[in-house]
Amino acid sequence: MCGIAGFVRLDQPAQHSLVQAMCDEIRHRGPDDEGVHVDRGCGIGMRRLSIIDLSTGHQPISNEDGTVWIVFNGEIYNYQELRAGLMARGHRFQTSSDTETLVHLYEEEGVEGLKRLRGMFAFAIWDARQSRLLLARDRFGKKPLYYAVLPTGIYFGSEISCLRQAGVPLETDPEALRLYFQFNYIPDPLTAYRAIRRVPAGGWLTYQRGAVQQGRYWQMPVPAAEPAPGLTHAEAVIRVREKFDEAVRIRMIADVPLGAFLSGGIDSSSVVASMARQSPEPVKTFSIGFEESRFNELPYAKMVAEKYATDHHEIVVRPEAIGIIRKFTKHFGEPFADASAIPTFIVSEFAARSVKVALSGDGGDELFGGYTSLQQVQRLSPLDHVPQWLRWLMSSISASLPYSAYGKNFLHMVGRRNGLDRYFAFNYAPFHMCSRLLRPEWMMPAEAGFLARILPHCILPEDAGTLSQVMYWEATANLTGDMLVKVDRMSMANSLEVRSPLLDHELAELAATIPHAWKIAGGQGKRILLEALGDRLPAALLHRPKWGFGVPLADWFRGELREFLWDHVTAAEFLDRGIVSPEFLRALLQEHDSGRRDNSHWLWSLLVLSLWFQEIGQPVVQQEIAP
Questions:
Q1: Which CATH architecture has domain 233-370+472-542?
Q2: Does the annotation mark 23 as catalytic?
């Protein structure tokens, strides 16, 4: 696992010192090794966290004659199979690393070779023969890759800080910030900066003499409403179990100590169970808990640890641990308000004391319908038949009610034009709160189809059905832009590699063929996964309510963190930016302090935004906002 950075300049030769400076920004991603290659206007570099081929895996790596060079971040789990085929075609290898396999695969197949990779990755290949740079990213976007195309050339890096170091303009992107206010993160391919974008998950980009070409080699399959032809329920259960165990097994390959995050939920517990069944040694497991009992899952994690006799480690988070939040803005590089980043950082720091690789349970909810919001989609499906005039009436009633009236947001949700709009209205930022908190120009447009226009790769057409639309959004926008960003930044901040078996693309393609009714039934999600793996878990885990990876922010904001919160979100330098209404913001703070309503989720997003503005020290661009 590594961090990569570099550029291709059109106007001057590449400077070794600039590549080095860009890589120094991500030293935490790879403290074990570093390397730089410079050729004419191209400079590429890396920081390495050594996992496989510890002695000869130094990067950058080239082909036999030094005309193709690569810097690589990630792991290719089928590289040995690919390597054997490439050797049979006459390629000579100097190392035992998966990185070198990519160089020769590129020589043989170009971007078409991306379809053959099984793993997580972000890499850059410099083809000196054609003066062409290739950037590519794995199917789910587990590994980050940012870039900026400027008149002088192209710059790229694993984190935004690399591009900042290179002097890429940092003018803020108002359209991206409006999405942040809606979702508490900025979906791919946008970032908070106009000039900086992400290579899309499952995508590639080439830069050749100033010309850019982009493409996709993989897209998330649309979740099926009906079984694939010939697929029986019993066969699906068997195939899920077999493919899951295979996905776990290939992610246990490492030349360094390896462990697993164990939350006590179905997904991480299933990963640990599979690891224990396939490992000759006790699995090292790491769990996090809270003093507040309603957020503490340690007892459930301990059940699994005891059942499989793991080498178990626990840590309890206390409010003073929140001091890490100042580090967040540096590692995320833009506003990111998923508060579960706090325990993710702490458990990563905790695990990194003992291992360099940890497996996680991320992806089960998105692929197998585990979110309770999906069950809510089913319950609300009869609203599809409500006449349009009645929807309009409900929206009007909602708008006329006092802000504090309970049911106001529910009526607004019912009045939405379709199921996906209702899902966004009910599960993300409440419209009536946003409309009073934010200045009008910072509200996300209410126009029909806005999200489909700006994020077309995440929104299915209405005829796909609401449940398919929602599951596709969760797997393409929320997973890539929120969950995987959180895990990557917080783990790599502690030089820890995290692998996600449930996000194996072959398992994902299998999951897409399994109909909704086999995933969500009887008020419970992930039914097919439980049927495949549930017999391996303690009975107490199988029917417990879903908790999620929450943190007791509400209590902290009324206690130890109250002064910190108030100081930052009511500071003149934040309010003077003209984004929020100072009067309504103070009302939200006072309402939360009194205990009348839990506003911690929204207050956290404002606190993160305030800290980010302090970090970048840039004014917000308010003009040229698209209608």
A1: 3-Layer(aba) Sandwich (3.40)
A2: no
